[in-house]
Structure formats: structure tokens, C-alpha cells
Design goal:
single chain, 592 residues, alpha/beta, 5-stranded parallel β-sheet
């Protein structure tokens, strides 16, 4: 039982013993830094069942706890707040239990329900961009956090590899490409295909201009431009299985997948399974027919099929067009069901998709519940805001969006520039520097994005993110490297355990308290699907360690037991930093 749970139980026993009434709950809060104490019991809520002066009640409960709970050594009451001082022995006993625990903070693997986490899910007509970076970093981190919290996790994406936008790139390459390939051009495949998507748009706009000049209405010109009609015809051929069209589609998508794989590898994200819209776009239609028979859906006069969600505060939503073709909602219904069929142990799914799709997922989840799927109760939309950049910071290869590869390259260059200015890497070989620049640059990018609550919009400043001071990835990486330097210099002294009779320095105790929070932070981050909780916990831990480092001698401590404690404490802090950062997909360098 956790200490807080023990204290809560004893507070309730004390209220019953002293006042003869039952206290339903006990409210805690962290002790303010300007007061002595480790845990604070808030007395004010007790006044609903106990009549009296809050200070007097606090003193009586405090005295009861000192008598009844061995690890509560003393207390003080400030107005309606009972500040409890936990004995040093409690923290030392805790530290002894985790000294050799290599998986500290992580739950037993696969001890909880299996969850599928979807992220990335790009279109195959252009490279990944800045929005995909936030999507991938969030989805990957949430998957890793859920895994650390004990869930079995399947990472997946659904690749949008069909549709008119894909045909636009295909048609433009066919018209203007002259057989250009990634190999002949020296371009990554996704960038090459993206180049022709832009080329289509440029030529399409030119055709619209010509039609307008000939006297056509703009709306009509946009519909009748030859290039658009050509793309629509290509889509019809693809759907009909035309051999030449399908071959071109496979070729160009193959180029894109090779490019995506390079980007994912550089970004440090991976997937366990892939779904393709070309395989799933027909899914869901049979489900709709079954739903019609169960009166979940209804048919309108034109033959289209809808669901009425007005009683649930939403509106009517179409699930099949009058010609029997599916809409995106139909496909998503079918895909969700297919995933549970493919992985029968799944009991929940997380969809990492931007907040512009909030309404879509409310409808999707509600439809699946109405269809009677028990796992639909455990579906979550990991909704996130956009990422903006200060204007002029970077140029995209496409000129319209910030390319993911460009951004990662830029972050490595920014890390190199700032590191060189600070003179932190004297004595490193060129290869060592290049590896470290990438570690620092990507760490800065990932941390800057993940430390923010997913729902919030981000203004991402590359230079600000690669700062060796403040709440940044490089600051935390630098602290980790400092700890490794201390450990390299430490004597190889091994003691069986640390005596729990030691009197802790205030900074040792504060650091132990912060380390103790790691397992519950992992669980809380998993419950809230929030990598930001892990990121900001790690920053708080690092701040606490640096305060400890500045005020307490580690290697210079003459007392062998105290020295061993401090070395082991530094080691454990380093382990927690590394574990926490791995959950965020960030690596930590041994030297900086």
C-alpha cells in the first residue's frame, strides 16, 4: 500500500476515533516549499463532517498520525493545512528496494489490456510535413508510455494510398516526368512524387486561367480543366483495375514508401502493422446493411443510408451514398472492426489525429457503441493542435509546407551551430560530433513538441528549442551526460545496502521524493495519453538533481556510506532520465 493510502486510512480512523464521524475522503496536496513537510493533508474539506476550528482539527489529527504511523516523525499546521514530515528511514528503505531494479518505473509487461495506437497515416502523394512530425511523435510516445504502464501495444497506421490526390501526382508524372525516377534524379521517392503533385497544381491553375480567359465561369473552369478530367478518368481506371494504371500506381507508391521509411527511421518511430486505404475503402458496407436491419441506421428516399444522432447532441450522419458507395465514416467503421478481427486481444484503440477531426471521431465512436461493440467504450481520439513556425525560419522543398526531412536536417544544423558557439565539444572527432549533433537536434525537436499538452497549438522555434538552459531537451541531455561523468570518476565501491539510520541532507530527501514519483507519473501519463506529463516530470527531476549537485558534495564526501548513497542516487536519477526520455523517443548521450 502506498504511503498516501496508509495516511488516508489513518486520517479516517483518527476522525472516527476523535470525533465519532465517518470521513468519506481525504484530500492531499504537495507541501509548499516554504513550509516543512513532505505530504500535506487539507483540513478544510473535513469541516463538512467535523465541526470546529481547522487548526485545532489539524493538530489533533497530526498528533494521532505521529502516534499511529511509524514513518510520520512530526507535523505542523498552517491555517487549514496539516504538513506531515516523513522520516528519513522511509525514503532510505524505498531507495534500498529500487537500487538494483532495472525496470524501475515500468509495470509488468502485458499485464493490462491490449491497445492499438494509430499514428502518421499519410497520403502517398507528398512527403511527410511538420504536422506529421507532431502526429508521429505523439503517437509513438503514447504507444511507448502505454507499454511502460503494462499494456500490450500494437502500433499501426492506415496509409491513404488511393483517391483523386494520388492520381494527380500520377498524371503529372506521366505528362511531365519524362521517365524521371528517384535514382535518376537523386531525390527521395516521396519528394519526387510530391514534386509532381505540385506540378499538377501549377498546370491545373494555368488551365483554369486559360478557360477563364476564353470566357468560362471560374467554377465551371475549375470543373472542366483537362488535367482534372484526366485525373478523374485515371481514378476510374484504377477502380476498374486497369493494368497500366495499377502498375503506375504501384510504382509511384513504392517510391513513396521507400522515402517514408527513411524519414521514419531518422525520426526514430516504427510500426508493428500497416493498413492501406486501397484495401479498406470497401470495408464497412456490410456492417451498414446489418445496422439497417437492427434499426441503428435508416434509409432516405434517395436510397442513401444515415444515422440519427440528434438525441445524443450531434446530428444526422450519412454512412452510405445513394449509389451504394461508402464515405470515410463507413470505411473507418469497417477498419476498426477489421482490426479487432485481426488482433482479437485488442480492447481499445487510440487514434492520433488533428483536432479538426474531433467531430468525426465523436460520431465514429458513438456509431460503434450503438452497433454493440464492447471495445468501443475504450476508444480514444488523441486530438492535437497545429504546429506553427516563425515565418522565414525554414524553406520547404515544396514551398508551401514545412517538410519533415528539412526540419530534422535543420535541427541537426542548429544543434551543431549552437554547440560550436558554446565550445562544448572540444576534443570530439568529426564522427562523434555528427552523431551528437543529431542526438541533440532531434532531442530538442521532440522534447519541445512533446512537453506541450497535445490539445494546445505550438509555435515551434528551432533556436529556442536547442538551448542548454531551461525546459529543453538539450538541458536534460546535458544533465544526464554530467551524471555519467560523475559515475565514470566514482570509485568502484559496492555496499550491500544503505543504512536506513542515515540522516538525509534536505537535497537528498527532495531528490528521493522526485525519483519516487516516476512510476505513478508513467501510469498517469498513460491514463491521460499525455507525453507532456513525462517530459515535465523529467525536467523537474533534472532541476532537483542540479540543485542537489550544487549543494551536496558527491565524490568529495568523506563518509563512505553517504558517498555511496550519493553516487547511487546520481546513478538512479540517470537511469530514470534515460527511461523517461526513451518513452518520448529521445536518446541521451554519454558525453556532451
Amino acid at each position: 500500500m502506498k504511503l498516501q493510502e496508509v495516511i488516508a486510512k489513518k486520517v479516517q480512523e483518527g476522525i472516527k476515533s476523535i470525533y465519532g464521524v465517518d470521513l468519506p475522503t481525504v484530500e492531499f496536496q504537495p507541501t509548499r516549499k516554504d513550509f516543512e513537510g513532505d505530504i500535506t493533508v487539507v483540513v478544510f474539506p473535513m469541516l463538512r463532517v467535523v465541526k470546529g476550528n481547522p487548526v485545532q482539527i489539524g493538530n489533533e489529527i497530526g498528533a494521532y498520525l505521529v502516534e499511529q504511523v511509524d514513518v510520520i516523525s512530526k507535523f505542523n499546521v498552517v491555517k487549514g493545512f496539516l504538513n506531515l514530515v516523513v522520516s528519513d528511514s522511509h525514503y532510505l528503505d524505498f531507495f534500498n528496494t529500487i537500487l538494483g531494479e532495472t525496470s524501475y518505473g515500468y509495470a509488468q509487461p502485458n499485464s493490462k489490456d491490449a491497445v492499438m495506437v494509430e499514428y502518421s497515416s499519410p497520403n502517398t502523394n507528398k512527403p511527410l510535413h511538420l504536422g506529421h512530425i507532431r502526429n508521429n511523435l505523439l503517437g509513438y510516445a503514447v504507444a511507448e508510455i502505454l507499454k511502460a504502464a503494462g499494456h500490450k501495444v500494437y502500433k499501426t497506421q492506415i496509409i491513404n494510398d488511393r483517391g483523386i490526390h494520388i492520381c494527380k501526382s500520377m498524371l503529372a508524372w506521366k505528362r511531365f516526368g519524362n521517365g524521371e525516377t528517384p535514382k535518376s534524379s537523386g531525390m527521395k521517392g516521396d519528394h519526387l512524387v510530391g514534386k509532381y503533385y505540385v506540378a499538377f497544381d501549377k498546370a491545373y491553375k494555368a488551365e483554369i486561367g486559360e478557360l477563364i480567359a476564353q470566357g468560362r465561369d471560374k467554377a465551371i473552369a475549375e470543373k472542366e480543366a483537362p488535367l482534372l478530367l484526366g485525373a478523374q478518368e485515371m481514378l476510374r481506371k484504377w477502380e476498374a483495375g486497369d493494368a497500366e494504371t495499377v502498375a503506375l500506381w504501384k510504382q509511384m507508391n513504392g517510391w513513396v514508401y521507400e522515402g517514408f521509411d527513411i524519414t521514419y527511421k531518422n525520426m526514430g518511430v516504427d510500426f508493428d502493422t500497416l493498413y492501406y486505404e486501397s484495401d479498406t475503402y470497401l470495408l464497412g458496407r456490410d456492417v451498414v446493411k446489418d445496422g439497417l436491419e437492427k434499426n441503428v441506421f435508416f434509409k432516405k428516399e434517395d436510397g442513401s443510408v444515415w444515422i440519427d444522432l440528434t438525441d445524443d447532441g450531434l446530428d444526422e450522419k450519412i454512412v452510405l451514398r445513394s449509389d451504394g458507395t461508402a464515405v470515410y465514416m463507413t470505411q473507418d467503421i469497417g477498419t476498426a472492426i477489421q482490426r479487432v478481427t485481426d488482433f482479437s486481444d485488442i480492447n481499445g484503440m487510440v487514434y492520433t489525429v488533428g483536432n479538426e477531426q474531433d467531430y468525426h471521431f465523436k460520431v465514429l465512436f458513438l456509431i460503434l457503441k450503438k452497433l454493440g461493440y464492447a471495445w468501443a467504450e475504450k476508444l480514444h481520439h488523441l486530438s492535437y493542435g497545429m504546429v506553427d513556425l516563425p515565418s522565414g525560419k525554414m524553406k520547404s522543398r515544396e514551398g508551401t509546407v514545412v517538410d519533415a526531412d528539412d526540419l530534422m536536417d535543420n535541427m541537426t544544423e542548429t544543434a551543431a551551430s549552437i554547440s560550436e558557439e558554446l565550445g562544448k565539444l572540444d576534443g570530439y572527432s568529426r564522427e562523434e560530433k555528427e552523431r551528437l549533433y543529431k542526438t541533440i537536434g532531434l532531442g530538442a525537436l521532440k522534447y519541445y513538441i512533446l512537453k506541450v499538452d497535445p490539445k494546445k497549438r505550438i509555435l515551434f522555434n528551432p533556436e529556442e528549442s536547442v538551448d542548454f538552459q531551461g525546459n529543453t531537451g538539450p538541458f536534460i541531455q546535458y544533465t544526464y551526460a554530467r551524471i555519467q561523468s560523475i559515475l565514470r570518476k566514482a570509485e568502484d565501491v559496492v555496499l550491500n545496502s544503505i543504512e536506513n539510520t542515515l540522516v538525509l541532507h534536505e537535497k537528498e530527501k527532495e531528490l528521493l521524493k522526485q525519483v519516487q514519483l516516476f512510476p505513478e507519473t508513467v501510469q498517469l501519463a498513460a491514463e491521460n495519453y499525455s507525453p507532456a506529463l513525462i517530459a515535465n516530470y523529467t525536467y523537474d527531476l533534472v532541476k532537483e538533481f542540479n540543485s542537489f549537485y550544487q549543494q551536496v558534495s558527491i565524490l568529495g564526501e568523506p563518509d563512505a556510506m553517504k558517498k555511496y548513497l550519493r553516487i547511487q542516487l546520481a546513478k538512479k536519477v540517470g537511469e530514470v532520465i534515460e527511461k523517461a526520455f526513451l518513452l518520448l523517443g529521445i536518446h541521451v548521450p554519454e558525453r556532451m
